[in-house]
Amino acid sequence: MSRMKGNKMFMSIKIDLENAYDRLNWNFVEKCLKECNFPHKIIQLIHHLISSPSYKILWNREKTDTIIPTRGIALCNSVLSSIPYYHMQYAKHPRTLCVEMEKIQRGFIWGDTEQGRKPHLVGWDVICLSKMNGGLGLKRPHLMNEAFLMKMLWNLNTKPDDLWCKVLLSKYGTNNDLSSSIKSQPYDSPLWKALAGTWGEFQRNIVWKIGDGLHTNFWLDKWGSNNISLITVPTQSCIDTILNVKDVTNESGNWDDEFFFQNLPEKHCD
User: Fold this and answer.
1) Which residues in the chain land under pLDDT 50?
2) Measured at the alpha carbon of residue 240, what is the angle toward residues 238 and 241, in degrees to the nearest 5?
3) 198 and 215 in one domain?
């Protein structure tokens, strides 16, 4: 507390909003809604949504008795969404598993029990919107799985000197050239098979920054201004798919015009 000029005093209060959010008493929420003159039916609906869920904990492979919380409105997002994230970072989850995760999330939010299913009052796509856009901010499991794997591929390309990158690159013999040789075998690790399976989608959504051209594949990478791979437009039937951009420049660092005109349509030689 501090004193301003004159007789007035002021003070500041720092609140941990996340903790406060998790500890909101439901009666307090209801009283605030009444104080703001919300319609009675809306208040009843909101109270039902935040107070109806119950859950059980798996303890030593056995379910505990049903737990009915008395406060907090962020449990589903912090628990049901976060727990699987660790496993999503090293393996590709089957789509059926992701669907089952979402089924559990929906059941928790709307209060489904083994005895019956409650009405789901809002579409799942709306629930998964960000809080700013009127949703609860839940993440779709299959999209998060892909995002985690693409993030690893991004780091594998941009941070090859990190220890874990060196281990993977040396073990699977890519020689730092992921663009033309990333593939997996049945006996490879779940992580590498997941990365190899995600590579196609990852490659379709990136554009390479040239630099010195040593690590950019001339035919396979999207390094041009039109964001396409030149593998789709060659004029020759036989091409070298391990050719990098550096290979098509001359000693002075300029483009090898003769190579371009011999191997590409004229519109791609500008």
Assistant:
1) 1-4, 13-21
2) 115
3) no
